[in-house]
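User: Protein folding is very new to me. Would you mind checking the protein record under this note? It all follows right here:
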Amino acid sequence: MSSVGISNEQLNWSVHMVGQSISDTIDFNTENYFRAHNFMPLIVNTV
């Protein structure tokens, strides 16, 4: 029996990939924001 549509495995994989790309985008933007505002040395020195 063939099911029409996508399986749970494919759905989970798609959700995972979307989540990964969103978090990667957030990380990238956050890093650029801190670089642009020169906060990075401040954070590194504080920790």
